[in-house]
Amino acid sequence: MGYLRVVLCAALAILFQPLLKISLGRDIWNIVDVVVGIGLLISIWAKPRIKAN
Questions:
Q1: How far does the chain reach from its first CA to its final CA, in angstroms?
Q2: pLDDT tens digits for range 4-29
Q3: Residue 53 pLDDT > 80, yes or no?
Q4: How far is it, in rounded angstroms, from Cα 8 to Cα 47?
Q5: Could you give the angle at the alpha carbon of 13 between the alpha carbons of 42 and 45, nearest 5°?
Q6: Which distant-in-sequence residues (6+ apart) come within 8 Å of 14 by Cβ?
């Protein structure tokens, strides 16, 4: 799960940085913003699962 989080954060950083222009249209960008915002809020409230070795 740790690698998935790293890949997801890297993908979001590339998506939201203005280095490359990604033209998705205003409606799609609004949806992306809401989905990412909800995902970030969930990640704040989610409790990490600690595995016992």
A1: 16
A2: 878 888 888 888 876 777 788 889 88
A3: no
A4: 18
A5: 15
A6: 20
